[in-house]
Here is the input.
Amino acid sequence: MKKRILSGMRPTGRLHLGHYFGALQNWVRLQDEYDCYFEIADVQALTDNYDNPEKVQKNVREVMMDYLASGIDPKKSTIFIQSMIPEIAELTVFYSNLVTVARLYRNPTVKTEAKQKKVLFGNDGESITYGFLGYPVSQAADITAFCGEVIPVGDDQLPLIEQCREIVRKFNHIYGEILKEPEALLSENTRIKGLDGNKMSKSLNNAIYLSDTEEEILKKIMGAVTDPNKIKKDDPANPDVCMVYSYQKLVNPNIETVCAECKAGKRGCVACKKELVKCMIDYLKPIQEKRKYYEEHPEIVDDIMREGTAQARSEAQKMMSEVRKHMLINYFD
Ligand code: TRP
Here is the structure.
């Protein structure tokens, strides 16, 4: 029997190349070898966007189209919406008893994100919400509701997988061995940086989106950061500090030439950027054509979301009935 994969993303914006090369491309490759479940984690998105439900709602559809355009195939994999599976919320409540508040405060991922979002934390913790602090518990419910065994994620997510494993062990110890301890599967690609050399992120406006137009791609790449020590067009440069080169590596089949010419001072940055624009547009073309098809057929997207969610729900219901039995809360069975 194929092993079960579970992963997901928060619908807080359209997906960019960081999501694609860091996760999606990997998920697409895993679809034949594993039984894959891919979540649109809207409940998790609401933990820090609870005051902007329109944003989350809109992006559930955008992320769904980005999944499909990237090659997640609904015939092979199950794609579902987190908030439509009430069993996840139910499990989260029961798991909450198995985690201390102190442990959540020590979770490195929660810590980093609280800092990024400028949420007060720890001793000044008045402004962090219960929901945000507790989202690792809800993520443990996401994983175990579908008996997820292999969790393909970036390294920033490792503390969340570890937190899930702890909850699983504690649950199994108290209520009986029914949950599986998941394992992280790190994606091959290292995190790709934004065009300005910072972490790729929506708020820094340094990302290329899967759905960007040719004009947007051109504008963004022409403004990318190159080797600051290269002043004149024929100065030799160091490709390893150049953002343009780091993208060329992902999409340009003639990467050896790019590298050699750059080091030898035989390649101006403007020409190099133009070449990257062309390669990037070519690379994204099949993804964008697929996305356009789904944009023009919203009813097909609806059907895929509805069917995937129904399939996922029936799986979660089976799990929940076992959990209730073992926790002695199956009163009417
Ligand atoms: N926390 C993940 C992110 O921010 C999204 C996510 C939600 C997830 N549930 C998950 C990842 C379960 C793996 C498994 O990208």
Observations:
- The domain at 4-192+298-326 is CATH 3.40.50.620 (Rossmann fold).
- The chain has a mean pLDDT of 94.
- The first helix runs from residue 17 to 30.
- The longest strand covers residues 4-9.
